[in-house]
Amino acid sequence: MTNRTISALILTILLAFEFSVPATAIVQTSGQDDPLMTIGGKTVDKDELIYLLSKGNKSEPGTPGMSREEFEENLDLFTNYKLKVREAEAKGLDQSEEFLREFESFRENLKAPFLIRNSLEEGELRKAYSRMQEIIRASHILLEFPTDASKEDSLIVLRMALKIEGEIKNNGSINELAVEYSDDPSAQVNRGDLGYFTALQMVQPFEDAAYNLQAGQVSSPVLTNFGYHIIKVFDRQPNPGQVRVSHILVRIDEKLSNGEDLAKRKVADIYNEIQKESTIWEDIVKNFSEDPASSQKGGMLPWFSVGSMIPEFEMAAFSLTETGEVSPPIRTRYGYHILRLENKRPVESFEVMEESIRSRILRDSRSTMIQSQVMAIQKSRYNFTENEKNIAKLKAELNTTTKNGFASALAEKDLASDQLFTLQGKSYISQDLADYMAEEEISLKNKTGTFDAWYERFAAMELNKAEEADLAANNKEYRMLLKEYRDGILLFSLMNDEVWQKGLMDSVAQKTFYEKNIRDYQWKGRVNAYIVKVLDITQLDAARKILQGKTLSEELISSFESTYQTSNSLAYQTEAGNIEYGEHAVLSKADLKESYQELEVNGHLHLVLLGERIPASPKKFEETRGLVIRDYQEYLDENLVESLRKKYPVKINPKAKEETFIALNQ
Questions:
Q1: Among 195, 192, 198, which residue's Cα sits nearest to residue 311?
Q2: Which helix (H) or strand (E) holds 140?
Q3: Residue-range domain boundaries for the chain
Q4: Ramachandran region of residue 2, left (φ > 0), alpha (ψ -120 to 50) or beta?
Q5: According to the CATH classification, is domain 133-238 in 3.10.50.40?
Q6: C-alpha dist (Å) from residue 449 to 364, 406, 410, 456
Q7: 522-618, what's its fold?
Q8: Predicted local confidence at residue 62, as pLDDT
Q9: What CATH architecture is 242-346?
Q10: Which ranges of 91-181 would DSSP assign to H, the alpha helix?
Q11: Can you give the pLDDT at residue 429?
């Protein structure tokens, strides 16, 4: 019989938890009218057993289904499992503070993959990774808003942006116009040229606009938190991945009038020196590089991708093709560099980059966008209707209040009963918001005011509650997974109290169990032996010289071990002690009357030195305590199950049992 499904169920029972959604779909049954069984009058649905066994069944399509024997064994294990959960509930373990805290922690992990937010995040992750397969070179012009800009100020900036857009589209140079108009301070140096970049290196609206342009195209004004941007894309090409280089830096002394010439001459001399075959790169770096962070490490820099370094340095690094190739000197604002290519690697797989991408998305404006989309979907799905008239009034009256003064302001202005919204037919009023604010210990900041900040947070919380309740009520997979974890925690608590800790800590009971079952803890015939497996046949004579004709003793073993470990630790493999010889690979073939012998076993020569023979006898408690504890715990478990079957009568529904078996073999 195979252990395919039984092992899966035992793993579940022993809490081998997986923090992920099961890959195997739940087998659907025709209905839930007939429970599979009752345990002490409490029903257990057949879908629970089907879920657990379907989850564990990873066999290939076309392989035979579960046999009757397998099914009966799994049903028996499942019954024992549910009996223990029933007892844990009867003991109130599901109401303990420890259980509630642990289960809530599990619930947070379990629900995440099922939430609307997760699917939206997954979409953004995939989109970002898809964009990462390409790099874009673009220039831009930024027009910032004045401090405390009014609507009219914003319109003036927009009109200016539209004017510049027109000039560029009429063959104006975006780089020349950037020097004239851009509020980006770097434009005076780079003329608006951003070099190459990829996904997640620019703010989202800028990235979206750039990836929607082809080479040569110019965007309409793009609004970001910085202002309006005009973007022109010059090039798009496949992402070369990451590069690692080492470099030599020669700085330009700005204090000297001829500092540029001196640096140029020095870097040229270094470059010429590098061309000599006898030159060692690391020595040149150590002696001449003026980058203190890398000069003592051979000039080595960390791996970097497109958009991580200044454009000139980056372009030179990615233009190198062969490992060890050295670039001609290049100039950046830091001075002159010579680069050597150390390695290149392509864009990593989505699986490798997933968590890094997720972290970056959750740190930028995409997180706010995702939250807005989540709320929009939740509002539509759960019949959220806002009382717009009351919301406008409450904003006007309460945005200037403090958090601590919010409740009293509600009462003074007689606004506590004003409706905020309805959600799934339930009405929420201002007092509900005030009660929520009083419970929260955090402070919120919002440009528009106190009411706006807390109202949005309160609405989001209630919408999230509605989504989670919907999950628990209508998502079968989530409901089953949640129940599995809940029951698993209860099972663990009961087993820990009644079996594992009791079996581990009660030494008196262990000894009593050992004495009652001493026939199970017996040594078979043993012999004091030293076995030397010869791995290097050239060292055979050396071993013979030490062992042959000698009497087995601790001193002899110690002498031999120290000698070969010092001279040739790979020559032999040894085993020593009082060893049961009956089924031993080597000793079972030995003549126990001979003190020294050589035996060929499994292709290796073994030198065997034998001492005293020890007849079969009981093991001392200390010699077998680990095995006793294991057996005693199994005994406690069996007794627990036996007592629970008496305490909670089990009644199996034959019809539901047969339906379960059929469902598992569809």
A1: 195
A2: strand 134-143
A3: 133-238, 242-346, 522-618
A4: beta
A5: yes
A6: 23, 12, 15, 11
A7: Chitinase A; domain 3 (3.10.50)
A8: 54
A9: Roll (3.10)
A10: 97-111, 116-131, 151-169, 174-181
A11: 97
